[in-house]
Every structure is written in structure tokens, then in C-alpha cells.
Amino acid sequence: MRQTQQLNGVLGEGNVAHTAMSGSGTTAGDDPLQTAVWRLRSRGCWTDAAALLTPHAADPAAALERAGLLVERSLFTADGWADAEDALRTAEAVARDDEERGGAASERGRLAYAATRLGVRDRADEARSALGRAAALLAPTSPRRPLLDFRRGLVAEHIADSPQAARAAYQRAHAGATAQGDTLLLSFTWHHQAGLALRDGELAEARHGFTESLRIREELGYLIGTAPVLAALADCEPEPEAGRLRAEAGRLFRLLGGVPVWLAAQLSPSAPTRSSPPQPEPAA
User: Fold this and answer.
1) CA–CA–CA angle 148, 154, 159 (5° rounding)
2) Which of 104, 193, 242, 256 matches a 20 to 30 Å C-alpha distance to 6?
3) The whole model's pTM is what?
């Protein structure tokens, strides 16, 4: 079976709250604006979602959320880098304290990592530096810590080629997301820990992690993130189930207009089989 890899890009895998809005839009009772942003984001309409936040751009949390949306668009489409950079500069400019500056640094690290992994430009040093700056700025109890741990795990795995360090970072992120009740981030930590298990040939562990990730994304309605999990889960299943999962991933991929763009090659008939060496995932 094909060796598929998955993009787990996310803007605020945790809940976002600020003076104008509350919640992440994923649960009942969240602010209507956040709910609207989530619905657009979950279907890959990042530009429209970001436009809803533009009137609130003077608010640091809203500015950071808007930047995250545009960074995520670049992750999934390999386009819009200039817009993401502009939004990040705005978020950095309006940040008022270490917590907000740390959040902006975390987003900058993610953008630099994505540009490196997608082959746009080698910004690995910038990714490390920005995430290290975020770690210095954010308090140990910051609600942004689990997300930062997750992103540092990505750098450890795919830039430093240190799966052991990556696994430790993912585990910290997973524990933090569990403590915070951040189910969307949990879908990513499940996914990436499963990816490491798959690389090690631990199919049962990988199957469990991908299944949990898929369950959460379906429950949340995170449509844009469903196809990559289906494709990854296909690598853990025998035929004909693997073919069914891959076909469903392809259907969603086409439904969403060919996004994420990197999944096209992984769903193609010429994609490598599971017996081929694992390929690093493009970005997250």
C-alpha cells in the first residue's frame, strides 16, 4: 500500500479568546463570529474567514488569529505567502505583552517551517529561532504551550531529523491539549504520534492514533483535515479497506478543489508503496 503522509497545519489548534469574541467556534455557545470563522476555515475558505476578523485587527488576539488563518492557507495551498507575512507583521506590531508576543513568535516559526518543508525557501534557522523565542516568552502555564510543543515537535522530526525528540514534544503537547480540553489539537497530536508509529512499523498503534484523529475531525466538522487522515489510515489497513479509505480521501480532495495541494501526488497511482522508505510530511 502507498506510503501517505499528512499535513496537519493549524492556526490555533487550541481555543482562541479575546475581548471581542470567545471560544473557537467548535462548540455550542461560542461567539457567533468565532463560529462563522470556524465554519469557513474548516472548509478551506481561509481568505473569507480572515476577512471576518479584519475589522478587529487592532485587537492582538484577533490579529494573531487572522495571521494564523493566512499561514494555514499557505500550508494547504502553497500560496499566499506575502499575505501571511503581512498579517504576521500586524500581529507582531499590536502585541502588548510577552504572552501575545510569544503567540506571534510561534506563528512566525510555523510559517518559516512551512516554507522550508514545502520547498519554497530554506527558513529552517528562522523556524528554530522563532519557536525558541516563543518558548522564552510564554510562561510554563501559558495556554499556548501545548501548541508550541507540537510545533517544536514538527521541527525536531522534519528539520532536525530527531524522532525521539519529536515524540517527546508531541507527548507534551498531547498531555497539555488533554488538560485544556483542546480536542482539535488532540487530533493533530494523535495524528503525528501515529505517523511516528507507522514509520517504526507499529501498525496497531498507528491505526489507533489515526482512527482517533479521524474521529475527532469528523465530530468537529474539520472537513479540510479529513482527507489526509483517511489517506494515512489507509496505510494501516489491508485491501480492500485501504482502497476504500484512499478513494474517500480522493473524493474529499476533489470536493475541496484539490486542497491540500500536496495530497495530489500521494493519491496518484504512482505513489510509493508501504514497502518504500517513509517520506517526510510536507508541512504542518
Assistant:
1) 125
2) 104
3) 0.86
